[in-house]
């Protein structure tokens, strides 16, 4: 995944874009899925 444009999104917006919850994004971040 190209993460360079993720910084343009607020977590809520990015969560909506992916169709997941903000909590899911936080879990992914903790589990380093997005790294």
From TrEMBL:
Source species, domain of life: Bacteria
SUPFAM superfamilies per the UniProt record, alphabetical: Putative DNA-binding domain
InterPro entries: DNA-bd_dom_put_sf
The protein's name: Uncharacterized protein
Organism of this sequence: Muricomes intestini
């Amino acid at each position: 995944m190209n993460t360079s444009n993720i910084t343009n999104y607020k977590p809520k917006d990015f969560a909506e874009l992916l169709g997941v919850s903000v909590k899911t994004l936080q879990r992914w971040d903790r589990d380093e899925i997005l790294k």
